[in-house]
């Protein structure tokens, strides 16, 4: 199976995050801050991380989670792991 | 990782009449899975009202049993954190119920970690009677140190 285009993966991640935090994808820009701008709590953060781990079969270490402060941070972390 | 299956019950904050795990049968650190049992005797207090002529285990009690087993799994995977007796609280529950559980049934509860952090966790749980799956649940929970 050919590796997925990373742009497709970004769209998938954005869709998954928007669904978990229950906001329209259009409002979820790459740089909007999860905690400060969207009020995401630790439980939602865990759900986001768990869904990404499950979908892409990767492990995101606990210490990396606080560094994922916006969608772009997730993309950057994911790009290194895939 | 060696876990004492009897002493691990000490981390469960719930007590009678709201403890819905009787015993831990096994813990598999590699699979990050715990298996517990709960025997539902006819003497359970809720059967007289649920329902007077047709006693069945309430679905919410099955969810509670799976959530308590999830606490035990957290305790097995994070013994140092659990030893501090933190508070556990439910964040999200998504359940499917497939079969009715009756007085006299032994519920076997299997809980597998999807992701367990120090301060929260997500698990997949299944509750079975014999080999029949009665309920399946995804549970997200938080863990907070007592203030």
Describe this structure in words.
The complex is a heterodimer of chains A (82) and B (147). With 82 residues, chain A is mostly helical. Chain A has a single domain (6-81), classed as Non-ribosomal Peptide Synthetase Peptidyl Carrier Protein, Chain A (Orthogonal Bundle). Chain A has 3 helices and no strands. In chain A, helix 1 (6-21) runs antiparallel to helix 2 (42-56) and helix 1 crosses helix 3. In chain A, 18% of the residues are buried. By secondary structure, chain B is of the alpha+beta class. Chain B has one domain (7-144): Thiol Ester Dehydrase, Chain A, CATH 3.10.129. Chain B contains 2 helices and 6 strands; from the N terminus they run E-E-H-H-E-E-E-E. Chain B has a 6-stranded antiparallel sheet with strand order 1-2-4-5-6-3, covered by helices on one side. The termini of chain B are far apart. The model of chain B has no long low-confidence stretch (mean pLDDT 95). The A-B interface holds A 42-43, 46-47, 49-50, 53-54, 62, 65 and B 91-92, 114-115, 117-122, 140, 142.
Short summary:
The complex is a heterodimer of chains A (82) and B (147). With 82 residues, chain A is mainly alpha-helical.
Poorly predicted tracts of residues of chain B: none
- Mind telling me the C-alpha Rg of chain A? 12 Å
Biggest interface found: A-B, 10 and 12 residues
What top-tier CATH class of chain A fits best?
Answer: Mainly Alpha
Strand arrangement in the largest pleated sheet of chain B: 1-2-4-5-6-3
Largest sheet of chain A: none
Task: Provide the CATH top-level class of chain B.
Answer: Alpha Beta
Got a strand count of chain B? 6
User: What is the N-to-C succession of helices and strands of chain B?
Assistant: EEHHEEEE
CATH-derived topology of chain A: Non-ribosomal Peptide Synthetase Peptidyl Carrier Protein, Chain A
Task: Please give the count of helices of chain A.
Answer: 3
The low-pLDDT segments of chain A are none
Q: Which fold does the CATH topology of chain B refer to?
A: Thiol Ester Dehydrase, Chain A
Instruction: Kindly report the name of the CATH homologous superfamily of chain B.
Output: Hotdog Thioesterase
């Amino acid at each position: 199976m050919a590796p997925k285009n990373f742009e497709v993966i970004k769209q998938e991640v954005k869709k998954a995050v928007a669904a978990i935090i229950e906001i329209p994808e259009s409002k979820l820009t790459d740089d909007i801050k999860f905690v400060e701008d969207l009020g995401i709590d630790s439980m939602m953060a865990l759900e986001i991380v768990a869904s990404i781990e499950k979908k892409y079969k990767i492990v995101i270490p606990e210490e990396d989670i606080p560094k994922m402060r916006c969608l772009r941070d997730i993309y950057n972390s994911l790009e290194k792991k895939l | 990782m060696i876990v004492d299956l009897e002493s691990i019950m000490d981390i469960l904050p719930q007590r009678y009449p709201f403890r819905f795990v009787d015993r831990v049968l096994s813990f598999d650190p590699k699979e990050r899975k715990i298996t517990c049992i709960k025997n539902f005797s006819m003497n359970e207090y809720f059967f007289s009202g649920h329902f007077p002529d047709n006693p069945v285990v309430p679905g919410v009690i099955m969810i509670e049993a799976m959530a308590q087993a999830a606490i035990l799994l957290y305790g097995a995977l994070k013994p140092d954190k659990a030893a501090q007796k933190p508070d556990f609280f439910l964040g999200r529950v998504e359940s499917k119920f497939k079969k009715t559980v009756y007085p006299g049934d032994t519920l076997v509860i299997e809980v597998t970690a999807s992701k367990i952090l120090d301060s929260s966790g997500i698990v997949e749980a299944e509750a079975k009677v014999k080999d029949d799956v009665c309920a399946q649940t995804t549970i997200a929970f938080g863990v907070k140190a007592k203030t």
